[in-house]
């Protein structure tokens, strides 16, 4: 790997493929379409529920955004379909239509295992072409995943580093994980959902939106083996987990690929972690009950969500 | 009130208006747009989390349904927007668009306080016309509500009555509540989310869909004062909480009106409570941690959701 | 071919394939994506314009229908997006969103040549899988077709037969064409758009909607060679041109297949021809200027339209 | 009126209101929802059809644009709903969903008379609030308008002035009309559809898109009385007819207001007139048969269209 000041060491396609093999968990799980969520047993759920101390509930979903921008190229739809004048009163009804091509850089959403294929294969080695069509996914749908209730851990990198935010392009490495674990007093463990805060939405509020596809802070692929060893079941982030530009030649979203396709680890993209950062700092605790409940979409490759942390 | 064999005693408009006044809680809450969710304090959240015993997670949202039917007159949309051939690989991406005019009888959804007005007024006496427009709701939006974490109680009427389901049109009364409380070993209390099971989806699977707007089992308005006294914060149901046809002259959804508009109690409609019924029966417990996380839609009158019960 | 009282003689798959070969025009046209519209030269346009006598303009598109029904399984969307309260006045603006999965039995629409493939091939022998993806059609799009201005001929079968409508399932044969030509005083010719009236919408208004996929009047495949000889460039109908149920074993839409895939003849489905029938009867003329202007959708497989006949 | 170098003389609100009164045609027409289209009689249709000389058909609708940009803030939707794998073969079907919030600066569309209100009133003095609701328009819908077949005249200002395009902000005045009439050999007359070319799409192809709401070439209100005297029935443009910024204080779209609300003259916005400019120059004629066929949307405030000029 050669050096790159912005987004970490460059990684060749061969090195990436070796990494893919090294972290691959195909064939391991009884319910392969749920991938790493098989890790989360009833014991994990009980343990996560027992983390609730203050009872503070912190939602981490972004507002539904209907305005286009450099980080919102497929704006969501929100239309009023009744303003008390369609269905007859009484009572008068106010109704609305919601729509979104939710994958992208704006809508807070979950990526199910059918979202990505590498070299033509989905997680567990399923043939992508045969598994996903215009009617949806027959393997790895968000319906197969269902909801997640587990321990969440906020890796609040700006808090660890004493900065307002990580600059776009800043790669997060294994050493950042261990440094954060020490600084925040928490160690990632089996079945955890790890939420990586880069401070994107603080930066966005102060400096305005930018093209996150061109530059964003996120994981470098060299951190993924450690995340795999820790046994995490989900990667969440205020970006989309991948540092951009990608340090891997010919692979635009290498962390997505390793997580989803090699390891069966779903992603939560575009979380707004600012309030959670403040809540964790206030409580002096970076682990909490996390609940993410995707919509029950047969064949869906993911879902808009509004997960909550319960402190 | 005169007698009606199907849907309980008929109620005149004057009687209904008296009931509305009797249960009205306008002006009571510091955050009026959250209505009865003001009842749910951090203490309630902690107490609800402490209910987790087995760690079983039961989602209660219906599948996203794109086929029209007598109970699905505005079918949801699900379109694949990328099948690995739009965004260039690697990896190849599979993406989809979701859309729904979600109020109605099919999509599992939350009704926020802006969903309904009675005599031109929303909850807390807000003028409906001035509060909701083509741009959305300026009072009582689902964004104001945010997520709900509280104790859920399943009123499993078919289990109490020893039937497969309540027939469409069967009204549920205060006496049914107290009988269910005794039979199920749980008493509704302050801040509880009550989930009324009529067995709709068991009936639907066995007999096929029907027009739930014309006939469905649900609360009679005469049960609402008791629910108010108990201090419930949410009415959920496998129907839409209202018995239909409505027993109230000139009011098509009287329980909606009393709950949302008079009492500030949001509704969860079209829950699939069949698996939860089995889980509660198996555990011998009808109270659990309930988490409902609506999408964060500014100005939205509600949201599709997939709530979970954690046993 | 064996006899079938309802929808004409049954046709084996082998017979169908022979018919397909017999009428196939692959390789014939300089602009293959426009298929039989290559027939319509500037001379045809001028000749069609010269047919205008009275100046009566008759639109033949159905109303946009947002209600589901047996003949509308994917109802169209119509949402108001501004009611004078989103964009600031003055003036105040009223805006709306329109959406439709328009292929089907409800929306009046044009089928472009990318709409159908037979044995994996589009018109002109193009590989369907390689030509159409989630990003749209790269061959045979509605953008390639563009608008059509030509002579239209109404084959008003109920008028010829002295009935209110053809019953669903009634097959239309070559002999019906020649009988209609004699009765109506018009002969189909090169570059003509033929509009087949079965009286569907008169029947629908009088008897209500039915499942047109299960039974509708339309062309039998045995009429297609004559239509090919006549050199028609478009098949329009108040149904979708195919008699249903299909008389061809294993082919659900055999006239679609012969027209679009073998002959490059686009289709206009779900025309409301009732007013045009009256106008033609009144004028004593069944030929007119026809103008159909699909939306300019790159990669679209067709388009909603509202064609006009100018008498 | 004071001078303004960019967008013509500034106009006070009082002056604008006087202009509104001067050109107002309320109460004049038997079918008020069709406004100035009442001018177009069968005689006009016949005369327009007789203009066809070469038989060249020139579509003037822009491509359906799904990418956001400074002139496309509500991008259109285009989703494939079947790629031969949903409905069973044979044949295999390729289908798509189209959706658009079409008013704006991108989609070629027709504005019906319900699109705009001034001081609370639609054309013909109808109360806007009582006439348009979440269910659509009850007066002035695009369904009432129906299709237009009439003489079209291209006012090709760049051709007249010997420039590539009019710069954004350039106001077009009555004197420009008479100069263009002389230069192009055509005089606007009763029932004509006037198409104003500014060269927007040539500029866009050469220089890229810009925010047309902030600056675009178009009519100054001082030209409207002449257009009214000429008896035009429609204003079309490659922009949206209004010069921007608006020269009228407190009125963001004054030409829209005078045309639609005072005069009942629908608008065609976002036409691509580049090919038509070349065709007219080649033919040495700027008048032609124009056909615009909006979708038949009950209650619609307009429609996406792809009009054609037939030379």
Automatic annotation (TrEMBL), chains A, B, C, D:
Top-rank taxon, per record: Bacteria
InterPro entries in the record: KFase/CYL, KFase_sf
An annotated Gene Ontology molecular function: arylformamidase activity
UniProt GO BP: L-tryptophan catabolic process to kynurenine
A Pfam family it matches: Cyclase
Name listed for the protein in its UniProt record: Cyclase
Species annotation: Streptomyces lavendulae subsp. lavendulae
Taxonomic placement: Bacteria, Bacillati, Actinomycetota, Actinomycetes, Kitasatosporales
